[in-house]
C-alpha cells in the first residue's frame, strides 16, 4: 500500500535548511517518493502550527522508512538538525 511522509517544520536557519532541502529531494526521489505539497498555503485547525508543511507519497511505508534511514537522507538531515523544529510521520494510505 502507498504511504504518505508528512513533515511539519519551523525553520530557524534558512541557509542550513536550504542545504537540507537541496539534498533531501534527491534522496526522497531515489526511494520512489514524489512531492504532493511543499510549503504551500495551509489552515491550522488543531495542534501546534508549523509554517512549513511537506507531504510526499511513497510506494509503501517501508520505502519511506528506508528513505529516512538511508545515508543520503541522513546526510541531508544533518543540515536540518539545529536549523529547524520538526515532526515527521509516515502513514499508510487506504488506496
TrEMBL record:
Tell me which Pfam families the record gives: DUF1330 (PF07045)
Superkingdom to which the source organism belongs: Bacteria
Cross-referenced SUPFAM superfamilies: Dimeric alpha+beta barrel
Where do the coiled-coil regions begin and end?
A: none
Every DUF1330 domain range: 2-93
Query: Under what name is this protein listed?
Result: DUF1330 domain-containing protein
Q: Which organism is it from?
A: Mameliella alba
Amino acid at each position: 500500500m502507498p504511504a504518505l511522509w508528512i513533515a511539519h517544520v519551523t525553520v530557524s536557519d534558512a541557509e542550513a535548511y536550504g542545504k537540507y532541502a537541496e539534498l533531501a529531494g534527491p534522496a526522497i526521489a531515489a526511494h520512489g517518493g514524489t512531492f504532493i505539497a511543499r510549503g504551500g498555503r495551509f489552515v491550522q485547525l488543531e495542534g501546534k502550527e508549523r509554517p512549513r508543511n511537506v507531504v510526499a507519497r511513497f510506494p509503501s511505508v517501508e520505502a519511506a522508512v528506508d528513505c529516512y534511514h538511508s545515508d543520503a537522507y541522513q546526510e541531508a538531515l544533518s543540515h536540518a538538525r539545529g536549523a529547524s523544529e520538526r515532526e515527521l510521520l509516515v502513514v499508510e494510505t487506504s488506496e
